[in-house]
Write a structure and sequence with these properties.
Butyryl-Coa Dehydrogenase, subunit A, domain 1; Butyryl-CoA Dehydrogenase, subunit A, domain 2; Butyryl-CoA Dehydrogenase, subunit A, domain 3; 11 helices
């Protein structure tokens, strides 16, 4: 793996860093307090090509590759993790449609995501009774003439209240297990698609998370994504790539927590010295930085493998597992370094910890990542 960034990757990194520092970070606390969805910010990110980093230029993307996408996610998450969640899911949906969709679906929906016209993309797989076990889903799509009619419900859907384009999974046969699951492209606002009340989450307050109810929701048969009955494979493929995005997000949050902690350790004095002079704080910072660098290298390796069309499933799970567990640990230590000030929102580290806590859960819990890693190892 080449650790030197090429010109395109460096340009994407710098673009995301400037946007994060100039546009996202200054208002991150306000979005956290007000639970404000970042409509304007997503539109601006689309104009920079960051809603389609790994999408072909013909479909409105930047065609910059998986490594550039990972770097962009790190920068955006360091500024505001809530915004990075919407960016990650939009990229994942656009990539899924551009990879498996018919020419009609690609041309109709991918540019809507990459341009920001759709506001965001959503990925509707989980259900109230089917999270880590998507094969247990109950949502069903019945063929009626030239349309499919979807009935059921989804849970934990990022940007689900506002997304203009969604990829939705439903059973299309009565087969047990994952056989017979299909994927559909569904437009936001379709009759019978009903977003629920936004969830009151611990963190990521600027990210919209809702349940979805489908009541006789009609979708054209041509909106089947990929082959009928092969939707489970598409979901797993998307999640494998998505885990690189979540690992990147965790790296960004962790880096922000480390930078805030180092800054505080230089400025805060106790017993006549900056607290950074004390061994306890030094060792916290040293361990935090070491875990972060290990996470970043694991993530970059997984992204590099994906970009070069090499097997990356195990590496993506390893990156997601290590980076997200480490981010929670690092952010917890950041709060400890700040003492009482770490427990209030005058400093950003409480937000970092609340935001980081979601990362070991979504895109496959870290318990599932251990299953994937072991399964790949024992093949």
């Amino acid at each position: 793996m080449d650790l030197e960034l090429n010109a395109t990757q460096q340009a994407v990194l710098e673009t995301a860093r400037r946007f994060g520092q100039d546009r996202l970070a200054p208002k991150a606390r306000d979005r956290d307090r007000s639970h404000q969805f970042p409509f304007e910010e997503l539109k601006a990110l689309a104009a920079l090509g960051l809603l389609g980093v790994n999408i072909p230029e013909a479909l409105g993307g930047a065609a910059a590759g998986a490594v550039a996408y990972s770097l962009a996610m790190m920068e955006l998450a360091a500024a505001d993790a809530s915004v990075s969640v919407a960016v990650a899911v939009s990229n994942m949906c656009a990539e899924l449609i551009s990879t498996y969709g018919s020419d009609t679906l690609k041309q109709k929906y991918v540019p809507r995501i990459t341009s920001g016209d759709a506001v965001a993309g959503s990925f509707a797989l989980s259900e109230p009774h089917a999270g880590s076990d998507p094969a247990a889903m109950r949502t069903y799509a019945e063929k009626r003439g030239d349309r499919y009619v979807i009935n059921g419900s989804k849970q934990w859907i990022t940007s689900g209240q506002f997304a203009g384009v969604m990829v939705v999974w439903a059973k299309t046969s009565k087969d047990e297990g994952h056989h017979g699951i299909s994927a559909f492209v569904v437009e936001g606002g379709t009759k019978g698609l009903i977003p629920g009340k936004p969830e009151e989450k611990m963190g990521l307050h600027g990210s919209n998370t809702v349940g979805l109810t489908f009541e006789d929701c009609e979708v054209p048969a041509e909106n089947v994504l990929g082959e009928l009955g092969h939707g489970f494979k598409l979901a797993m493929t998307a999640l494998n790539g998505g885990r690189i995005g979540i690992a990147s997000q965790a790296c960004g949050i962790a880096r922000a927590a480390i930078e805030a902690s180092a800054r505080y350790a230089r400025e805060r004095h106790a017993f006549g010295h900056p607290i950074g002079d004390f061994q306890a704080i030094k060792w916290f910072l040293a361990d935090m930085k070491t875990r972060h660098e290990a996470s970043r290298l694991l993530t970059m390796r997984a992204a590099w493998l994906k970009e070069h069309d090499k097997a990356f499933v195990r590496e993506a799970s390893m990156a997601k597992l290590h980076a997200t567990d480490s981010a929670v640990w690092i952010c917890d230590k950041a709060v400890q370094i700040h003492g009482g000030y770490g427990y209030i929102d005058e400093f950003p580290v409480d937000r970092y910890l609340r935001d980081a806590r979601a990362t070991p859960i979504y895109e496959g819990t870290n318990q599932i990542q251990r299953v994937v890693i072991a399964r790949e190892l024992l093949k």
